[in-house]
Amino acid sequence: MKNYICSVKSLFLLTLVSLVFGLGINVQVSNAEVLNDGSGNFKILSRTSIQNPKLISQIGNNFVISFDMSNKENAQPDLKYGLQLIEESENGQVIADEKIFSEIFTLGPNETITREVNYTAPSYLVGEYSIWLIIENSSGLNQGIGTVGKVQLLGDDQYVEIDISSCYLSVTEDNLSKKYNLQQGVDVNADETLTINCDVFNKFDREISLKPQFEIFKRSSFSDLIEVNQTDENIVLTSEEEKEFSLVIPKNNIPQAYDVKLSFLDNGELVSNFVLFHYVLSGPSGTIQSIQMDKEGYLKDDIARIKLFWSGSADIFPDSRSGKNPADEMISFSFNIENDNGEPCIKPINKNLDIGENLITIKALIVNECTSLNGEGVLKDSTGKVLDRKVFSLVDNSNNSKKESKTTDYSILILICSVIVIIILIFILIKIRKKRNDDNETEIKNDNNDSNTNNNSNMDKIVLSVALSFLIGSSFFLIDGLKTCSANQVQAYIEWHFTSEEDAIAQGRGDEWAGGIWDDSLFTVGLGKDSYGIDEPLDVLATNATHISCGNSSSATVRIEKIDFDAVSPTVFLISKYGMTAGDFMSYGSADIPQNLTPGEHTIYFTVSYHHVAYNFTETIPVTFTVTDSYSCTDTVSNSTLCSNDDTDLTINTPKTVTN
What we know:
By secondary structure, the chain is an alpha+beta fold.
């Protein structure tokens, strides 16, 4: 009896250890989603994505498209979504059209929303195009991509075509008469003359008189339109005539990076496609790329984690015409939050920012209950001049909080019930064994006592084995049931380092050693959704690189070389195999990769290579995803980080569809 009780006690101890171990494993699975966050040369800015894009219908050049927008962590305010119609030409990708929708929205932590939009492509377009969906904030920071694939357009081809492949920018005061490509982001002084040069072709069957129109945006065409400028130039074209033109670009007077759209009007009517280009006005500037709160609301005495991503002057980048050094500037950041009653949520923050530390997290004590947040962040230079200001509002959605609690409580309930069942089983076994021993006491003098004892011992082993099997199976069930869904897209900030000062000197960049960081890039990489069925191809996606300070596009490749520990052969290139060269530029890349992975969590590795003249830098970004058979991480479940089993009621979390 004593030995049996010791065995049962051992089983009970093993139960507790296994459950703790199971929870520990679950924590490790959860943390697996946060791969290399804040360490190494790259940092994860955010985990927002576009999922499940679908072309609902196409009638002529009219489209109905639906898609989900998902966020895995931190509140992401100040977002817009739009689409671009991309043409694959001999000279790389060309933006044939763009539509930015007016809605400004916030994605809370672990929130998914669905949108269905209507889009009408220009009536003159003919041929095959790809439709890409994009999320950006007002600073031009990409927050997710998706594509519905290729579509055919059968327009009338009656328009004035700006041959985008022929376009370049130039600065009149340049001694070398250098040509700058459209996304290179040439920096110019306020007193210099910036021009755009292109070929234009009249496809109309009549003579036409063209009046240039410039639309100017701060940093990105997703941000607010600053001004529309119609110049006095007049270009006359007869039918099917082609001309080269050179136009002076009207510049804004505030130092910063700018996107500009050039198109042509005839008698006030738009008659051409547009060309989008990027330039930088030199001078002291700064940009709040994003401000993220870890929650949408707080209780008094909570600790808020504020994630700030910022950049200094837009004219500081490798090989800029200004030649400015980051050490030349000093920037400070101030931040305050109030609730809807005008009460402060935190004590005002005033912090001098360290050059080169562009992504920082600030902890702040919440001094009043704030179920709503009205925040304002300001960047200033050393003279107190305001360089940038970003305001946002967040509201704690109590309904969403309840949904998340219900989902979490369901998993906790499984855990509690399993523990209770195992404990009850142990006590039942003790009772049965005690009764057996009492019965056996009356037979203690029988000759077959040893045989009975051996039989009981064998029975004990069988019972303990069954209990242990149940225990281990339950533990793995719990681990599997609490699995955390993976982030399918990440926005990554990469700092490119020389390996040593000697290496920088050898590359002719010794004067830019600056502790090792020579340049930086922003990317979005990932997959089209969280989870895939067995043998379902992986739809992988990537954007080209942009520089943090200026928003200029850079020379890079993005490729897939490995899934888990297995090489992908042949290597899959998402962004140009040859990098960004004249006449070979890619904004976005996608591919379908076959897979025969076993159910469970897996990791795909995106290799990013940055090219500059004679030298390259390489970094690898891991992104996790799930392969499922009996159940899956449901993409449309909002406000939940849990993979739901088949019998879970998902209707309580079904996102609302809004038509714009």
